[in-house]
């Protein structure tokens, strides 16, 4: 093979040993083709990272929005519960409580859903004041935990139950995606030297 028939052009490209016939062909492989392929791969990786990071931010933002909406819903249900207690609204209370609802009263007794509703229906528990403060809502998956302080003025069949109580109420999303109260516990806040009263907030009445 004639050495002169080999293109050894190196300007703006790479050496090509392709045999040529007749005049020397200036065909060569541009170096830019090799150089451009590297940034393209880098851009693809960067794009993938941006999409992944952006997706994570979007998911986090959506979770924050959902949590905010859930908190507002729980606060609304707390207001429904308060109004039901003040007005003796058994229908509203029945819609709030889960079928397996259990309460622990300040006296340490247990109270079922039926007993809680019956207390309202028969006016065994009657409140004229129910002021809620220091409310805090926390979420654990499909469970919401509410802690509050309640100042109560009212009576039960055992007498006056006026005073301040701390309570914990637990909500769980049911199969129909509705928040239901599954548990409630109340504790009387006593001042130093205050004598224990026989009646208690949310007391079970037989």
What is the number of strand segments? 7
Mean pLDDT: 79
Mass-distribution shape? elongated
Q: Could you spell the SSE succession in H and E letters? A: HHEEHEEEEE
The fold-level CATH name of the largest domain is: Nuclear Transport Factor 2, Chain: A
Rg calc: 37 Å
Please name the CATH architecture of the largest domain: Roll
Spans of at least 5 consecutive residues whose pLDDT stays below 50 are 9-16, 20-29, 31-35
Q: Which sheet architecture does the biggest sheet show?
A: 7 strands, mixed
Question: What amount of the residues lies in strands?
Answer: 25-35%
Which structural class matches the secondary elements? Answer: alpha+beta
The CATH class designation of the largest domain is Alpha Beta
Total of DSSP H or I helical runs spanning 4+ residues? 3
In helices, the fraction of residues equals 25-40%
Q: What is the straight-line distance between the termini?
A: 114 Å
Write down the domain tally.
2
Description of the structure:
There is one protein chain. The protein is α+β, with helices and mostly antiparallel strands and 206 residues long. The chain has 2 domains: 3-50, no CATH class; 60-189, Nuclear Transport Factor 2, Chain: A (Roll). It has 3 helices and 7 strands, in the order ααββαβββββ. It has helices at residues 31-87, 90-96, 113-121; strands spanning 97-104, 110-112, 125-140, 143-156, 159-160, 163-173, 179-189. Strands 1, 2, 3, 4, 5, 6 and 7 form a 7-stranded mixed sheet that branches. Strand 1 (97-104) and strand 2 form a beta hairpin. Helix 1 packs antiparallel against helix 2 (90-96). The longest helix has 57 residues, at 31-87. The radius of gyration is 37 Å and the shape is elongated. The N and C termini lie far apart (114 Å). Residues 9-16, 20-29 and 31-35 have low confidence and may be disordered.
